[in-house]
Amino acid sequence: MASAIYRPTMNFVPVRPERSYAVKALERYWQNRESLILRLPIPEVLYPDIEQLPPPVEFVELPNWATDIAVEGSLLVPKQAIAEGETPPWTRTDWLWVIFWYLNGLAEQSFERQHGPIHSYSFQLKGWDSRLWSRAWVNRIALFLRRWAAREQGVSEQALFGSLPKAEIILTHDVDAIAKTLAIRFKQTAFHSFNAVRSLLRGQIGSSLSKLANAAKFLFSQDNYWCFDRITALEKTHGFRSHFNIYGGPGGWQRTFQELLLDPAYSIATHPKLKQQLQKMSAEGWTIGLHQSFNAWADAEQMQGERQRLEKALGFPVTSCRQHWLRFSWEQTWQAQQKAGFALDSTLGFNDRPGFRTGVALQYHPWCFKSRREQNLQVLPMVLMDSHLYDYRNLSDSERNTQIAYWLDEIYAVHGTASVIWHQRVMSNDYGWATGYETLLSTIEAKS
């Protein structure tokens, strides 16, 4: 347990920038009435300089009047945010520091300083409690503080703060391929083979043989990966518009072996059909962003060059992005993106599992520790990706539908905002993942 400074009122006590930031980040829940949240009797925990890894966490039980906001009556917080004392733990929890801790991935940042970037692979965080990523804990804390403030004022939440914000799912498509390349053949064949071995180890011989057959078929078959029209027609049917992230690198064969293997093969500068397609989509309401090269995750100059190449080809500004393969460093990537002229990044998620990487479904500004203020860039968490359902887990159709419903339900339950990735090429017959996207769209439409 941590020691704390108890502050029964915040009226005459200066508020540290980190605490003001935590409240401002969630302003959609209190609509410019942040002062009411800051006046809540929340203790200020004296947080240690060194983050314990893996981070110890604990469920804090909420009072009876807020149990519906919680998960089985409780919210998950880092243990160090709970002050010592005899009163109920929820009164001793520094909720504002918990928000700050989650939003800025303090535990992950500490891990990165010791071991380097994990580049969005959760399996590298060995021994970490996966429940950290299972819910939008920060949004649930916001709902709790909103209700607590209303009780303190003796009025309803609606009267004090107005209606809750509308949940929003941002549909995105990373365009890694517009034709079937050797790199794509090898990558997806490897996934099929891996799943075949995993099924065999589980004694599922029939499933293993089926996956080996799929691997061989994928390796040698021909297919059309130009799926833009199929996606836009489907989204029009449901009344949606989405974001397409486009590679801005040079493409072609005159690149390193790593670039040939891991980066897209096409070049927007030399592909008039692609330029026309994207310009048409933009005119009809779809958003175009940049999908940086594999090695650009910390290189502002390379990012800027790729952004400018894309803008020159399309004839309009590009201000949003997502890093290819979700290559990401807490210390370097967002700083590089800001220098390169971006306003929004949607990289924040995991390659190998769905989840809320910073415990939140919210578009927000991350914190700059050097200047002690929020960064100019906004980030939009990515919660679910097609490969989570098809490559990294061996799921049946019904199990995939259950997973889709679970993650969407959480976003809607907390009135949050998050993005989903469905790669453009996987709508082809090669992959056969179009049904999953149709299920996703239908589920969102039913909840909207």
Automatic annotation (TrEMBL):
UniProt-listed GO biological process terms: carbohydrate metabolic process
Protein name according to UniProt: Uncharacterized protein
Taxonomic lineage from the root: Bacteria, Bacillati, Cyanobacteriota, Cyanophyceae, Oscillatoriophycideae
Naturally occurring in which organism (per UniProt): Oxynema aestuarii AP17
SUPFAM superfamilies (UniProt xref): Glycoside hydrolase/deacetylase
Superkingdom assignment: Bacteria
Gene3D superfamilies per the UniProt record, alphabetical: Glycoside hydrolase/deacetylase
